[in-house]
Amino acid sequence: MIVAAISTDSVNKFLDSKSNLQDSSGEKKAAKEIWEKFLALLKQNLKDSEINTWFSVISPKSYSENVLTVTVPSADYYGMIEKRYNKHIASVLESGLLGENGRLNYEVCQEGLFDFEDSGVKKANPDSIIEFSYPYGAQKNFTSISISQNDDSFDSNIISRHTFDSFVKGESNEYAYSMAVGITNNLGVLYNPYFLFGGVGLGKTHLVQAIGNEVKRKFPDKKVYYTTTPDFTTQFTTSLVKNELKATDAFYKSLDILILDDIQFLEGKPGIQNFVYQIFNTLHNNKKQLIFSSDKPINIVKNIEERLISRFQWGITCDIQPPNWEMRAAIVKKKLQECKTEVSEDIIHYIATNVKDSIRVIEGCIINLISQFAFSKEEAVTFEMAEKAVQRVVGNFKRVKSISIENIIFAVSEHFSISENQILSKKRTKEIAFARQVAMYLAKDLTTFTFESIGLNFGGKDHSTVLYAFNSIKEQSKKDKKIHNMLLDIKEKIKSL
């Protein structure tokens, strides 16, 4: 294999900023910065797929006295890294990135479950160091390996903002959320595996990653790892082609919690399914937590082995449904709060009414809305901006005209020739009371407001009053054709406003 030399200019740029690293807030921060630069130099000669497959699970731990310490999943993993990439790693070390006589120290988080007889790597006792000699060139002993039981720098591949606190709860996901929280209090026992399914963009990834983040918070020593099935498949096939499958197998079987997203992509891949099956058995037998997600129930995913389906069904199965209007409105409000942007209630109502089914699309709409506002000269977000944001994100959708309770009250007052104030008052004359009930009925029939919200808009009426009015007018319209036609007339008036 021909290894290109690391460019002097690249190294000089890195060294210019390196001198201040050891005066930074700590060794771990310095290690992270140095490791990022280390990877950048490796990328000059390696493919992104190689970096993602073999170096993404290596975590920087400390940097002190020109020694960079990183953690690897197992001694086997270290052996495969050095066996395949020692020339590239040595090239970076020779560049002077770590300073004079700079060294890279691998610290093993946990011994692998499989050993390579031909790897050339000895198992170490907890306090031992194994020198790895570099046979090319004058300098030797660039790298070393040590065994450690502490793994405080393990990269779980989880987005930190995906927490239970940032997850918007509602009717459509309440059960799945409750079970997810329960897992963090009873790992690997009752809800194992946890299988979550639901349509695209409904928050599955957020919820399963929230489990991981909560476990990391409660149990920092636990090894939690998240990956998608396509990424898992790529790693498996790459390892198979390079005859390095045992290292990958050892990594996954060393986990305390495995989160495998989008397992519907296992469909028609018997080799990958067998790999998952073996990992499942090892982790489950050792009471390690397994978490899976899919866009559909596992029993309707085609071409999945029965033995794997049965294992997915061993624990708890939960689903997430599309959010109802109240939940969509809550999501809109929360996303706007996170972006520190205030908008009027009619804009929230409009977005929640027109953007349905997917939380991801709602987020896209909010981003579009805020971008418009940022580049406008307006002092506040306008309704027109909301319309454009919805149109751009949703595309050719059937626009639902936003109907306000104010317009409903106005149309009813016009029809009965009484003032809006009288409808909102506490007066109980027959004519006013009937008009008020009609307005309440239409408010519930034509909008997505709750009975409680409608009551507040009618002068603070109790939700039971609105419920009674709705049921009363509904029954009367079924029996009395005049009332039925009257409601149609008022609806036409409202839609024309």
Describe the structure.
There is one protein chain. The protein has 497 residues and is of the alpha/beta class. The protein is elongated. The strands form two sheets. The protein has a five-stranded mixed sheet. Strands 7-8-9-6-10 form a five-stranded parallel sheet, with helices on both faces. Helix content is 51%, strand content 11%.
Structure at a glance:
The protein has helices at 8-18, 27-42, 48-55, 75-94, 174-185, 204-218, 229-241, 245-253, 270-285, 306-312, 325-338, 345-354, 359-374, 383-394, 405-416, 420-424, 430-446, 451-457, 463-479, 481-496, and strands at 59-64, 67-72, 103-108, 129-132, 143-147, 194-198, 224-228, 257-261, 289-294, 316-320. It has 497 residues and is of the alpha/beta class.
Q: How is this fold's topology laid out?
A:
Blueprint: H1 8-18, H2 27-42, H3 48-55, E1 59-64, E2 67-72, H4 75-94, E3 103-108, E4 129-132, E5 143-147, H5 174-185, E6 194-198, H6 204-218, E7 224-228, H7 229-241, H8 245-253, E8 257-261, H9 270-285, E9 289-294, H10 306-312, E10 316-320, H11 325-338, H12 345-354, H13 359-374, H14 383-394, H15 405-416, H16 420-424, H17 430-446, H18 451-457, H19 463-479, H20 481-496
Parallel strand pairs: 2-3, 3-5, 6-9, 6-10, 7-8, 8-9
Antiparallel strand pairs: 1-2, 4-5
Helix pairs in contact: 5-6, 7-8, 11-12, 11-13, 12-14, 13-14, 15-17, 15-20, 17-19, 18-19, 19-20
Q: Tell me the β content.
A: 5-15%
What fold name stands as the CATH topology of the largest domain? Rossmann fold
From the coordinates shown, what is the CATH architecture of the largest domain?
3-Layer(aba) Sandwich
What structural class should be given to the helix and strand makeup?
Answer: alpha/beta
